[in-house]
Structures are given as C-alpha cells and as structure tokens.
Amino acid sequence: MILENFIVFEGIDGAGTTTQLNILKKKCGSNFLFTAEPSRSPVGKFLRSMLGGNVPVTNETAAYLFAADRNEHLNADISFSEDGILCGGIKKACGQGKCVVCDRYIFSSLAYQSIDCSPSVPRMLNSLFPLPELLFYFDIDAKTALSRVDSRGSREIYEKLDFLEKTVIEYRKAIDEYRGEKGSGMKIVDIDATLPVEKISEIIWTNIADLPIMKA
C-alpha cells in the first residue's frame, strides 16, 4: 500500500539525509511537515538512548522496538514537538493533505536490523506498514560516510566501519526488493551521496516538484 503525500529519505549514517531534510525545510511552505525516525515519542526517545549505547539490546530486540516506534509514528494522533517536528500521526497528516517528509523509515530497519539477526524478523515486522509515495535513497560507501560522522562528533553504536559496510550491502538489497511489483506505485530516486550538497538538493527538489500535491 502506498501512502500518498509521504516522502522518505534513506541512507546509512553520514549519507547526508538530515542535511538535505534541513535544506528542504527552507524551501517548503506550511503544507509540508518534517519528522524523523526514531521519532520524538517515548518509544523513540528510548531508542535514541539505545543508539547512544546507554541501553544494550540484541539486534532482534532493536527490530521490535523500531517497529513499535514506527507504528506510533504512523498511527497515533497528530502531535508536534516544541520545535515543530511531527512526533506522531503521519497517516492522519497525509490524509489531511499535508506532505510529510521523514528522515528514515522501514528501509533502515531492513538494512540495520538484518545484521546479527535473521533478516526475516525486520521483514515480518515491517510488512504491514505503507510505502512512501517517493523514496530518496542516498548511496555512499561506508568509509566515506564514517569520515563525515567523525567530523561531527561522537559515534553511535551502529557507527562502526565493519557494521556500516554490511549495512550498505543490506540497504542496496532492501531497496532493490522494491524496484518491481513489491514497490508498485512508489517512486525510487537513487542519489550519489558524494555529489555536492547543492546538486543533491536540486535533484530532490526537481522530483518533489513533480508530485501531485505540488500541482494542486
């Protein structure tokens, strides 16, 4: 199922998804809402603590936690953080004619949680969630991405070279799964994340401008 008016940015840590989301915020009007996963919900806050290394869990447990956070993010009532970030209610917001842009979604789980646990677990947990109308996949090698992570400060638990190298493989595999019938109705835009920031922003805006919501 495709969720209209829903846009997702995907890529490993250091791929530049957050940078591009912040650029896009400055271009869009009030009919656009912005969010990210883990969400700002209580479950999402627990996940951020886990990513910081404060709560050790197995990768299988992490898969269940990310799915629980995603369910709240999608299906809860619309709510916002003090700085205007959408905390929950993606489905309702999209249904009301808002365009929701999310930094990370099910494809992150299919990539990150397929390592050190059976890939069938994240696939099962995420099988019932709707697909975005438009998916931007930021492709980059792990070494380059990690150098960017190191330039901005401390690392999270998944930000290790060997883990991210495996994650890149799983990401590409997961995205490719949805290029055919499985992802029917979802547009996938592959982005070389090593391109200049301005060029990537141009690619993103060109594709968003083609959406029906922009022509209404």
Describe the 3D structure:
This protein has 216 residues and is an alpha/beta fold. It has one domain (2-35, 98-215): P-loop containing nucleotide triphosphate hydrolases (Rossmann fold). It contains ten helices and seven strands. It has helices at 17-27, 42-51, 59-75, 90-95, 106-112, 120-125, 142-152, 161-177, 197-208, 212-215; strands at 2-10, 32-36, 79-80, 86-88, 99-103, 131-139, 187-192. A five-stranded parallel sheet has the order 2-5-1-6-7, sandwiched between helices. It has a two-stranded antiparallel sheet with strand order 3-4. α1 (17-27) packs across α9 (197-208). The longest helix has 17 residues, at 59-75. The protein is globular, with a radius of gyration of 16 Å. 36% of the residues are buried. The mean pLDDT is 92. It is an enzyme of class 2 (transferase). Pfam families: Thymidylate_kin.
Write the layout of secondary structure elements.
Elements: E1 2-10, H1 17-27, E2 32-36, H2 42-51, H3 59-75, E3 79-80, E4 86-88, H4 90-95, E5 99-103, H5 106-112, H6 120-125, E6 131-139, H7 142-152, H8 161-177, E7 187-192, H9 197-208, H10 212-215
Parallel strand pairs: 1-5, 1-6, 2-5, 6-7
Antiparallel strand pairs: 3-4
Question: Which key phrases capture this entry?
Answer:
216 residues, Rossmann fold, five-stranded parallel sheet, two-stranded antiparallel ribbon, 10 helices, 47% helix, kinase, Thymidylate_kin_CS, dTMP kinase activity, ATP-binding
